[in-house]
Amino acid sequence: MFEWGQSPVGCVAMTRYFKKTRSVRLAVVDRGIGIPAQLRRSRVGDLHREDNAQVIREAVMRPRLTSRLNRVGGLGLKTIRETVCERGGNLTIISLGAKVCWRGERLQTAPSPPFRGTAIEIDFRPELELPDTSPNLF
Question: Is the dihedral of CA 10, 14, 116, 42 positive or negative?
Answer without folding.
Answer: positive
